[in-house]
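PROTEIN ENTRY
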Amino acid sequence: HLYDGQEVADRGDVIVVTLGYRVGTLGFLSTGDSEIPGNFGLWDQQAAIAWVHRNIRSFGGDPDNITIFGESAGGASVSFQTLTPHNKGLIKRAISQSGVALCPWGINHNPRRLAEEIALKVHCPTDETMAACLKMTDPALLTLAGSLSIASSPDNPVVNNLALS
């Protein structure tokens, strides 16, 4: 319950909403092209932000007074969420603690290489059939492959595939 929000809700006149999103390989794996564009974790977050905006009034909240907050990788996610036009009008404030979108560790600079490393770990080819093979691979195996020692992290978004415009 590290991020349950109880302390913040008890001390302030706020409603705390926490969300879950895909992380690791399932959240951020990308081939660097349209085959597996990546950033699924960021899209999950954006969908949650839109849901909160649509529904927060039912919980006594104000849809025009939404603050998003994240720490470390979550801080980088907050930063990315403020950059995308898909959240225009949905967020009033953002708090990014110990991480922003352009932190060196926050961006996957070579998504294809990481995808190839994961493909090899799950016995997929690294040719033009790689994406199709990865899509058919057991998600548990993909998750495990992404958590093993690799050159980059599968938790890092791909900036050139992030819908910023």
The longest strand covers residues 67-71.
